[in-house]
Amino acid sequence: MTMYGEDLLLHLRNTHRNQTEVSAEICAAAALSMLILNPNERDAIVSREALEQSDINYKALIEIFVGRKSSHVALIQQAYQTRFRRLLDQDIITIEPPNPYKKILMALAASHKAHHADVSQHIAKCDARRLYQTGEGRSGAVDESVVLEILSKRSISQLKQTFSCYKLIYGHNYTKTLYASLKGKTTDKGALARVMVSRAEVDMDEIQRVFRKKYGIELKDAICENIPSGDYRDFLVALATKTTNLA
After folding, report:
1. What spatial distance separates the first Cα and last Cα of the chain, rounded to whole Å?
2. Residue 178: per-residue pLDDT
3. Which architecture characterizes domain 117-175 according to CATH?
């Protein structure tokens, strides 16, 4: 701002919005603009953009609600209200037409407000079995009422323990991973950048370790194999090789 008389964030976002075609350079500008933002403002903007799309980006919204601490979700809601003069919870409630993901988001919002009691291993095991018995362990559609009940009545810490127990008991995760974004198994093209940027200074060390253990390849190498060369790939590789304790 001092040197060039313009706001860097605004410049990057206008560069992204003024292009009719998505290129690696535009993706890099969009990702960099996300990194510059305060994390709570970033999530508020991602939430608003997700809600404004013609096909609401439920994946982005769910990422925020399941990947942030309850205290952070409250700050995101404050940032959302300050920037857009709207309530995030209310915008989710008024989503039309009705959609199953809307129910999940409302349940996740409730789980962030759940009582923060000590995490119970017994409850986690019971919930894991209920999820299995009403999901892949039975024929027919998943009993969503059970899933929504668990999501809305358990704290985020308790839910994480439940998913850990699920993997321990049944040998695989209940949820999908970052790998799907890299291999192009999602239509949400911003998913990879969102995950990388939001976790760059939080637990990237752990993500690198788990990714290496699960897929037998370094995260940076997977990015290089699946993303065309250019600024966007270089940016993602820089995040993938970043250590959490660096500023």
Report:
1. 22
2. 55
3. Orthogonal Bundle (1.10)
| pTM to 2 decimal places | 0.59
What Cα–Cα distance (Å) separates residue 152 from each residue in 51, 79, 103? 21, 23, 10
CA separation, residue 174 to residues 129, 157, 177 (Å): 11, 16, 10
Query: 146-164 pLDDT, tens per residue?
Result: 888 887 788 878 888 998 9
- Other Cβ atoms less than 10 A from the Cβ of 132: the count is 15
Tokens found for residue 63: 């990422």
Q: Are 195 and 68 in contact (CB under 8 A)?
A: no
Residue 97 carries which side chain, given as an amino acid letter? P
Reading the block at residue 23, the tokens are 């290129």
Pick from 66, 23, 16, 64: which is nearest to 40 by CA? Answer: 64
C-alpha distances in Å from residue 198, one per residue of 40, 123, 149, 161, 191: 10, 30, 28, 22, 11
